Structure formats: structure tokens, C-alpha cells
Amino acid sequence: MKYSRQIIEIGEEGQRKLFESSVLVVGAGGLGCSAIQVLAGAGIGKLGIVDGDVVDITNLHRQTIHAGKVGMNKALSAKQFVNLLNEDVVVETYNTNLNSDNARELTSEYDVVLDCTDNFKTRYILNSVCVRQRKPLVHAALMGFEGIVMDILPGGACYQCVHPSPPDEIGEIGVVGATPHILGAIQAVETMKLLLGLGKMLVGRALHVDLLNMEFYEIKIERNPSCPICGNI
Ligand SMILES: [Zn+2]
Q1: Across the chain, which distance is largest between two alpha carbons, in Å?
Q2: How far is the CA of 215 from the centre of ligand 1 (A)?
Q3: How far is the CA of 105 from the centre of ligand 1 (A)?
Q4: What values do phi and psi take at 68, rounded to 5?
Q5: What pLDDT, on the 0 to 100 scale, is given for residue 233?
Q6: Mean pLDDT over all residues of the chain?
Q7: Which of 25, 45, 212, 221 could covalently link to 19 via disulfide, CB atoms 3.0 to 4.6 Å apart?
Q8: What is the pTM assigned to this prediction?
Q9: Which one of 3.30.1360.40, 3.40.50.720, 1.10.20.10, 3.40.50.1860 gives the CATH number of domain 4-220?
């Protein structure tokens, strides 16, 4: 009964597939909060949540699942939300920030990984470790009213094909709450499509979202044959 409206679209077999799947969300900030809500509601069997930060009052305008949890670890706060929303979902929390020492271990047992991080260093590490394991990675990044989403799948372009060298970290950026809500929801639905084998993925193209002008458009993405990460895999 719980999933009856979703089963009309994806069928009982699809629902079973979601329940047998595991997804790791790296970062329980704006993007992560949005993706976690959708994935937990959809009945993903196991959700891993990685975040070493605590909820701050300045997060709540966009990270609404952390309501009432200022000072609590974000991964734990997100788990409490998921437990209330859907008791079917098993949640593993990792009170740490992903780095080059723990990235492989954190990601290895999950079917799909979501890049919901907010800095270039972690994105490059996550891209490298997922590409080397041939593990699907759904990437998003944003600033202000704008953002971008792309699926990094085996055989397709990786993050480093698109961004060959890391730019300088920007520090604290402006963001309106709607931007991560929309982009995180897109990451979640891309994850569901991937697990179910449905539709057309964001491969060979990235989706650029400009909410200020309300324009959604594709950017063509090409694999770089000499990419140091995916070039020889
Ligand atoms: Zn590459």
C-alpha cells in the first residue's frame, strides 16, 4: 500500500529492485537533504549517509530535513528523518568527511553513489574512486540560482574529463533554498532510473539549471581519451 502510487509507474518488480538496492549519499547538506528525502520515500533498501559536519542555523533555509537539530551531526540528523519517513529503509551513517584514505571503503559496498559535496577536492577524490571501481556516480553542483547535474557511468565521461584541473576553492557561496531542492531531486530520480533501467540518463550531456531565468538546457559532454582518471580504463 505504501508504494501503491509509485508501483503504478514502476511496477512491483521495480519496487522490489529499489528495495534490494543500496545508495550512498556523500554530503547531507542542501543537495543531500533533497536527494535523501526522495530516495527514502521511494523505498531504497539501504541508504548510506556520509557527513562529518553538524547542523548550523545558517543551513536550515535549504536543509529543511535538519529542522530542530542545530548542533547535531548531519548524517545522524538525516537518519532520524529517514526513520520517521520510512521505517523500511536501513540507514548507515558515517560521521566523517570523505577523503582519499576512506573513499574506497565508504563507497565499495553501495550500488550507486551521489556526489552531494560542496568542494572541488572531495569531488575529484569521489570521481576517481568511483571511476576506478566502475561504480555509477551522480554528480551535482550549484551556486546561487544555478546548478548542473551529470551522471558519471562506466564508459562515459567523468568529472575530470569535464574539469581537467581543480579550480581554486570558492569558499562560502550564496545559495537560495530552491536550487539544491531541485538539483538533489534530479540526482535522486537519475539514481532511480539507473537502478530500474528506465529512461535516458544524463550521459554525454549535463543538465544546466538556471532558475533565475527559468531555463533548463543540456551541455554536450565528451570523454577525454587522455583523461588521467578514465582514459585508460
Ligand atoms: Zn575522465
Answers
A1: 50
A2: 27
A3: 21
A4: 75, 10
A5: 59
A6: 96
A7: 45
A8: 0.97
A9: 3.40.50.720
